[in-house]
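Example S7 (structure tokens).
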């Protein structure tokens, strides 16, 4: 498209046309340039600042930043704030140049290059000797938890799977959220645990934790972690994990296969056995941040109202190669349900935090240790449309409002026509799409598959513990709760007006091959949230997972949900579970299996329609077809 044609483009917002002021960005540009198509800027920040300056004189004007193809390596988060907010009849667009694919990467090559690691390097397994390369990590780079080569996230060196001990030795430290006991073989397999992290499934199989191993007692096998786990660190009470429930990562002893790597943060050395056996090149990159772009308004967290950014549009962009955000020591009570995510944290590559009337369209969020997109706290009329979210360490899309209280400002958003697959590669409990304390949203026409846990979540489960130790308990806005309820008990019906995950529509989604690792999950899960949620017209099929609970499940403390016109077939586990006053009608369930295709028995196999416990008085169950 010629410059003359591009300058005459208009954008439609609402019912009005607005001519757009344009700025151009290119990897071959320079920030001293004027930002024209012939002399583009080099960075998105420079183009953002130019658009801000133009908006001072044209407050009603539309702004368009046209980003040329190529890779833009980001060393710090790019923030769009109220200065970038658009008028009602305009927008600030950040769009790919026609026919081009700009890529925003959170990673960069190691600046010092690579050298062969000494063959006599202590603790290195014999098969790896002579095949490992090493690089110096700059002192000002953060410790990273992921590494990439091109479009591939390289696996961090990991031991074989072990199983933590079930009970403590006589007179020993009790097993709790910071202590467990390794079997003797695991202790003996590693000479130095100082750089190690532990991937562990605790007593409840619906969560996993990645924890730094602060201390290991070699005599007893006692491990202390620096960060508390979600639950006591004994082995899972149920569910099958045939390859183990505990793995030790980032130790040289486990660097025994091509593609694996170890980071020694003390010595600032990175060790890599290249996948192809060749000297690593510029395509091996280490991430320097997790959050690439943030759209942030002015939030009055404790107050009743916020000032959101409006009118930001991202179109045709690729986000990639960001780092996994670590669990934090002081986050007990700040985790979202079962610590599947953290409340109000920068865990995703693109994050909206105080935004309205924004759009993410035809973007890709791929090959990253981070989650894809977050909509935090105050987000309304934000649409994620026709995007691909794949090969991510965490969740695909997360909508997370304020905690239990009267501040209901996460609503009326949409996640539609997206392709979400192979997420949760590092954090296995991650969902494809999740709405927590967020309502009146549309989650429709998405294709979600190959997830280690649940495909779609609508939840608000909170343990209302005033001491802040229960799940999500520190997100509770106690002054608002007390003002609204007084001395009334915190029953579901009493607190339902304070639970904002209501009136969501989860419809016409194609879901398959979920629940590939974790236990006690589902294809669609609704729990502990508001009323009026609708799960309808979804096609759930081909889930050969031994640990799946049900295809659709209304779990504890959930009422007023409608499950209708869904088709469920060729799935393991159970069909539909509900524990409260809900409506289940006009669904078709056939070929619900009690074992996987290879003959492995399913953990859950009670039937097509399961009412395990809870008060279901008033429920409607009618016109469903069950074929066995």
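Recovered sequence:
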């Amino acid at each position: 498209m010629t410059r003359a044609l591009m300058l005459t483009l208009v954008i439609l917002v609402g019912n009005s046309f607005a001519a757009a002021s344009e700025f151009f960005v290119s990897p071959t540009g320079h920030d001293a340039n004027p930002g024209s198509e012939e002399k583009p800027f080099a960075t998105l920040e420079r183009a953002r600042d130019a658009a801000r300056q133009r908006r001072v004189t044209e407050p009603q004007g539309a702004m368009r930043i046209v980003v040329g193809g190529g890779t833009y390596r980001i060393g710090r988060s790019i923030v769009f704030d109220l200065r970038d907010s658009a008028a009602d009849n305009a927008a600030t667009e950040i769009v790919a140049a026609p026919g081009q694919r700009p890529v925003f990467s959170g990673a960069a090559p190691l600046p010092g290059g690579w050298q062969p690691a000494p063959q006599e390097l202590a603790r290195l397994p014999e098969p790896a000797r002579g095949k490992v390369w090493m690089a110096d990590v700059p002192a000002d780079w953060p410790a990273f938890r992921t590494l990439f080569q091109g479009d591939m996230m390289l696996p961090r060196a990991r031991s074989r799977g072990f199983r933590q001990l079930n009970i403590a030795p006589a007179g020993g430290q009790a097993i709790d959220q910071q202590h467990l006991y390794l079997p003797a073989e695991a202790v003996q397999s590693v000479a130095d645990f100082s750089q190690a992290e532990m991937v562990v499934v605790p007593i409840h199989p619906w969560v996993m934790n990645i924890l730094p191993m602060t201390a290991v007692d070699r005599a007893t096998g006692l491990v202390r972690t620096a960060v508390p786990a979600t639950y006591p660190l004994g082995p899972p009470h149920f569910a099958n994990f045939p390859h183990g429930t505990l793995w030790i990562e980032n130790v040289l002893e486990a660097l025994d296969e091509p593609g694996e790597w170890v980071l020694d943060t003390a010595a600032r050395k990175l060790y890599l056995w290249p996948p192809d056996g060749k000297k690593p090149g510029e395509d091996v990159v280490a991430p320097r941040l997790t959050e690439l772009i943030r759209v942030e308004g002015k939030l009055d967290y404790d107050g009743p109202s916020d000032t959101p950014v409006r009118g930001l549009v991202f179109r045709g962009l690729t986000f990639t190669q960001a780092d996994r955000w670590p669990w934090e020591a002081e986050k007990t009570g700040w985790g979202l349900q079962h610590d599947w995510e953290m409340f109000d944290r920068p865990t995703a590559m693109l994050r909206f935090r105080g935004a309205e009337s924004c759009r993410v369209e035809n973007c890709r969020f791929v090959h990253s240790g981070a989650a894809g997109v977050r909509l935090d706290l105050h987000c309304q009329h934000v649409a994620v449309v026709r995007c691909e979210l794949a090969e991510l360490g965490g969740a695909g899309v997360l909508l997370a409002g304020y905690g239990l209280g009267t501040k209901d400002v996460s609503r009326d958003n949409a996640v539609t026509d997206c392709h979400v697959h192979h997420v949760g590669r590092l954090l296995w409990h991650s969902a494809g799409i999740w709405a927590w304390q967020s309502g009146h949203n549309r989650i429709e026409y998405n294709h979600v598959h190959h997830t280690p846990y649940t495909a779609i979540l609508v939840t608000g489960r909170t343990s209302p513990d005033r001491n802040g130790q229960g799940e999500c308990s520190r997100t509770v806005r106690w002054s608002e709760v007390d003002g609204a309820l007084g001395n009334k008990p915190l029953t579901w019906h009493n607190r339902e007006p304070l639970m904002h995950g209501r009136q969501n529509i989860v419809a016409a989604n194609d879901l398959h091959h979920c629940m590939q690792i974790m236990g006690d999950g589902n294809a669609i899960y609704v729990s502990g949230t508001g009323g009026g949620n609708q799960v309808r017209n979804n096609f759930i099929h081909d889930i050969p997972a031994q640990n799946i609970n049900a295809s659709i499940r209304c779990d504890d403390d959930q009422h007023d949900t409608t499950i209708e016109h869904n088709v469920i077939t060729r799935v393991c586990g159970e069909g539909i579970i509900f524990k409260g006053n809900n409506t289940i009608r006009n669904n078709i369930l056939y070929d619900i299996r009690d074992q996987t295709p290879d003959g492995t028995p399913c953990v859950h196999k009670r039937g097509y329609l399961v009412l395990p416990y809870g008060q279901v008085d008033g429920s409607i169950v009618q016109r469903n077809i069950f074929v066995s």
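Notes on this example. Residues 396 and 432 are 5 Å apart (CA to CA).
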